[in-house]
Structures are given as C-alpha cells and as structure tokens.
Amino acid sequence: MAQLSLRPPRHQADPRAVAWWTTRSALAAVPVALGAVAAYWFLTGRAAWLGALVAVFALFCVFLAIAGPRASYRVSRWEVTDEAVYTRHGWLTHTWKVAPMSRIQTVDTGRGPVQRLFGLATVTVTTASAAGHIKIEALDHELAASLAERLTALTQAAPGDAT
Amino acid sequence: MTWRALSTRGLAASAVQSLWLVAPAVVTLTRLLSGRDWTWPQITAACAGAAAVICAGVLAYDLARLRTTRWRLTAERLELRSGLAERRHRSIPRDRVRSVDIIASPVRRAFGLAVVKVGTGQHGGDGDELTLDPLLRQEAEALRRTLLEPGAEAAEERDAAIARLDWAWIRFAPLTVWSFVGGAVAVGALYKLVGALGFDLLAWQTMAGAWHWLTDRPWVAVPLVVAANVVFGVVGAVAVFAEAWSGYRLEREPGRLRLRRGLLTTRSLTLEERRLRGVEVSEPLLLRLGGAARVKAVATGLRKAGDKETEDVAALTPPMPREPAWEVAARIMGGAATPVLLPHPKAARGRRLRGAVLDTLLLAALVGGLDLLFDRVPWQAWALPVVVLPVALAFAWDGYRGLGHALSRTHLVTRSGSAVRSTVALDRAGIVGWTVRGSWFQRRLGLITLTATTAAGTGHYDVVDVGREAGLELAAHAVPGLIDPFLRRH
Q: Which of B433, B479, B489 is facing A2, going by the closest CB pair?
C-alpha cells in the first residue's frame, strides 16, 4: 500500500517572521524570567538549591523565546490555490488546515504594533464554522494585501451561502 | 399590512407572575416588622401595601411594554418594533426563518397564551432571534404555520411520528450525576435562601436538636444522610424528567422536524431539515451502563440556551434505550443505516494507558512533594494514587474501545469519549474544512487527529487518534477533491 501523507504547503513564511516571533516571545518570556529572579532575590532566603531551580527556569524561558520561533519558522507554510487555502503551523503539535474557497466567509488582514515594525501582516480567513478560521501569519504586508484581494475575488466567484 | 399588538391578556399573566416577587418581599417584611413590635393588623396592612406596589409596578412596566410593542407580518418580512426608552425596529426576512418555537409556561397556559421565538439560524449577531411575548395560543400556532409553510396551509397529512414517549424510559431519568449531588445542592440552596430571608435554621430548637443528634452518631448519620440525598436526587430527577418530557413527540413534517414536550411548561420546537447537518448519539457513562442513550441534533444556529433554561436545546429525545435511540437517529438522517465503525490503531490504546500511568505518577509525585514539604501528610493520602491508577486505566481502556470512525454514502461517523461517549454522524455536504493535528507523540506513533469543521453544533467534530493513512484516506473520500491536491502518495 502506498504511503500517504500531507505534503508541505508551497510557500514559507517571510524570513522576517523569525525576528518578529522572537521579539514577541521575548516580550512575554523576559518579564517572567526577570520576575522569577527578582522574587528569588528579594522575597526568599536565597537558598542555593532554589537559586539553581530559578536559574534553570529563567534559562529555559530564554531558550524557549529563542528556539521556539526558529522551530515554528521551519514548520509554518501556506498555500492558496483556486480551490482552497492550505496552511501548516505549530511547533510541537503540527497542525494542517484546509478550507475550500466556496466555504470562506470573510478575509481579514491584520497588523499588530510589533508586527508593523517588521513590515509584516497576517491574513485571517474565516468559514461558517466557529472552529474553522485559518491564519496565514507573517506575510510581507504588501504580499498580504494582494493575497487578501485575490482571496476576496476568488470567494466572491464561488457560489453558495458558505454554510 | 397593519401593525398588530401583543395580547393584552399578557397583563393578567404578568400580574399572577408578579407574585414571585411579592412572596419573598412579604416574608422579609413580616419578619422585619414582627421584630419591631408591630401588631398583626399593622403588619398585614404593610404587606398588602407592599404587594400592591410591586404588582402595580410590574403591571405598569408591562402595560408600557405591551403598548409600545407592535409586530407585523408582511409578504416579505416579520417585523417587530419595541422599546420604551430606546426604540428598536427589528425585521427578519421570511425566507430566512429557520425555526419557530412556541413555549407556554403554566401561568401563560392558564390564560391561553404562549411565547413565540422566531430564529433565523444565523450565528450570533443581534438580528438572529425575534421574541413575541405573549401571543394568544391560536395566534402563535397560526403564525408558526404561515411562517414555515408559505402558501400551503393544509399540509396536515403528516408522516408518522419518529418517536414518542414511552413512560418506561423514566427509569433512565435518575442516571445522571444530579441524582447523587442534587439533594445536597438543593438543601444548600434552600439553606441559603432561608438565610437570605433572615432566618437561622440552626437557631430553631428542633433543628438544632436534630443537628446534634446527627453529629453525635456518625455511623448512623452518614449512611442516613447519603441515602436521603440519593432518594431526594432520584425523586428530583424523575420529576424533572416528567416535567420536561411528558407528552414528548418527535415528528417529521414536510421539510422539518417538530418536537413537542412538556407537562407544566409546554414547548413546541420546529427545526428546518436544511439546517440539520447530522445527529449525535450521546451516552454519558451512567446512561451507558444503564443501556441508554439520547439523540441530539447537529444543526446550524441553534438557539443558545437562555439563562433560565437548564436543558439542552439540541436534545431531540429523552434518555431512551440504545437500540431505539439508534433507530431514531437513523430515521432523522433519512433512513440511512449506520455503518459499522472501524477501530483505531492499537497505538491509540497504548497512548491512553501510558497517559493514565503518567497522570497517576504525577499525582504520586505531588503527594510525595507535599509530604516532603509539610511533613504532615497522613499515610492515608498514599491510598489516593493507588485507587486512582485502576480507575484511570479503566477509563483509558474504555476510551480506546470507544474510538471509531466510518463513512456512509451521506455521512461521516465518528465516535469517541469515555465519561461521555458521543457518536456523531455528520453530513458530508456540511463539512466546511479540515484540520489535521499531530502532536510530537502522535507523529511518533503514526497517529493524527482529524477534525471536520462545520457550521453546525460545536463547529468541529474530531476523529481522534486515527492512523495517519486511514485518517487522510477518510478525509479524501468524505469530501472528494478538497484535501486531495495536498496529499502525497509515495
């Protein structure tokens, strides 16, 4: 029997995504790590074993902030054909999503403040399902705009009420 | 078309319903005043005055509401104007109407009234439901017929009922968690309520005496209290079943399903079949052990249960024996026989068993950690992981046995769950996308979780821990052409 698997989507996220994601996770991880160290320094009796534990925790936070985005970048891919939107994302849990063009209800582009610094944008596609939205993260913002335009045109061409 | 008013008989119903507010007020007032040396005639007069004020307030509000609310049915739309301070005008195109529910509480029934809720089946938003509260019963029925049967008033020849109540099913009513905790919850709520009204039960001589008698004899008291709790819970569950499902009848009218039920509050729910994306047969553990199941609708835009409604709006049947439940499900789906479910790979079982062992180890580590930190954990605490392990393993084993999937000509069928086993048959045409998930552990075992997303029900239905090839094959066959371009055969 032939082996069957999902092929990776055609396009990779923009390389600037790594910098953006690193910044984003650093914004979350660094305060947590600093908070833990500060709590250890000021609130406890500075026991050595607890110090080691806190150091390991802080290093782990920093490691996650650096390694996570790089691992995500290797997985994150997307593809838009005339019939469907297809994406893959996730680091530990790989998630592939497929939505047919005929069932797409809205197409949005969004740019957060940090994302704007890196010139990136995210395209979000929703279907009638509460669980069915698909995000194409970290696209060059001009590419995102033209992609959203193309998606809108394609979904309008598809018949039906998308439920 | 002229604008029409709601039924003015609604005022009488509101007056009766205002007694719900009057009763606690009177009790509180009586208690408050009798503590201040008022004489009984004075107290009676004060209570009557308070009752009159509350009643008048409710009536005034309701009168204003009824005076300002108007509705009309034109050839294209159903419109409602309402609002005292802020006027609202809502309208629903008639061809968008997907459900008309008629609900009559005991008081409204006594006055020949009913509340009509008209739904469009759209998700969220403000304009998705329109409530006419109240209409005359006949008006409500007439509105239901005109809204759902444009042009055809005389579609009386109905298909036979899909299901009707068999009172023997009431034996399944106590098979819920509420039977075990319901008594305690009710007593707690009652105690709170009485306390809120200003009485302290334990201050009463007899109650205090009973309390002391109980606490002095734990070996008698504990079984007694547990037994009383269960008796209370069982009686309560049976009563709730009787109220909710008395007169139950599920029938197919042309193009839709109609559900009627209720002893005191009667409900008539109509569901258009084009909103139906499948059915779910749900078997919570206790029901499953009793050989019973219940059938639920997987439909788009089902009205969310309101604050006061504790029941599941998607429920199509009461708890009933498993085989008839499956027959009902098959008839709702249009007579398609349910296919035999294929089991999932053994790796899924190993994964569950390992998970159970790991959880127990974590629990043991937690007990150990507490022991180390506080030095005060009684040795009995170690019994916890010992007891938990076999239970967790049993659930893991049962969870694996519950996994299954199949594809029929029209439906994708998936089953999972142990505490609540649920089998969902999802219309293949209602699938609006796929999500495939593989965690690190799943990928190592060659498993995936395949999720069909849909506009109906919970929005997504999962085929959990299916073999990668079988799962992708399933997705490819269920919706031809959608996932195919992204598959690689090698």
A: B489
